[in-house]
Amino acid sequence: AQSVTQLGSHVSVSEGALVLLRCNYSSSVPPYLFWYVQYPNQGLQLLLKYTSAATLVKGINGFEAEFKKSETSFHLTKPSAHMSDAAEYFCAVSGYTGTASKLTFGTGTRLQVTL
Amino acid sequence: NAGVTQTPKFQVLKTGQSMTLQCAQDMNHEYMSWYRQDPGMGLRLIHYSVGAGITDQGEVPNGYNVSRSTTEDFPLRLLSAAPSQTSVYFCASRSAGQETQYFGPGTRLLVL
Questions:
Q1: A43 and B106: CB-CB below 8 Å?
Q2: Are A113 and A58 in contact (CB under 8 A)?
Q3: Among B40, B92, B106, whose Cβ lies nearest the Cβ of A107?
Q4: What are A31-48's pLDDT values in tens digits?
Q5: What is the pLDDT of residues B87-106, one digit of tens each?
Q6: Would you say the C-alpha torsion A25, A77, A42, B41 has a positive or negative sign?
């Protein structure tokens, strides 16, 4: 079985401040890990993914995440927040269970960026 | 290349009515999935398909049916709508050789 825990359903940062969104996972097989972003009234867009290559993964819009196996974490960071980063962010884990790999999502973290 | 498309964008149903949510992709992806998104619960898998003619249940399949007669289309049927099915529904697809899923824009469903 696999699961994802996102700590903090709402995070508020000032524009220009560091963004840190936390994600811990549980998986019985080597995981693939993802961060998706959802802007208001839109679908999900892939930010970045970890697929067992480099542990530090760079994504779009200046975001990056570090896979730490010992901590079972995959936290998302951005050095300097921009107003356009306000959105909901979902961490997800993928692993083979049965006939195909399935994606399990966390409950999401809504990021607010203030002036 | 339209990617994953969903229709309708918004729908209001009365309890007991049936309807079909449409999903199509033009990327020749083998895998397609349906998720529902509810506040505070993230996205939960309803049904998925690994190819034409092959479907399986996800985490929350009750009250929903699917079929996959072509690679491109994966409709989701609500047989008898209930207020608990009020949600935003997302369709996604991916290639068999890749782990990245591509999502449609969603269908917002309100059941009264």
A1: yes
A2: no
A3: B40
A4: 889 999 999 888 899 999
A5: 999 999 999 878 888 999 99
A6: positive
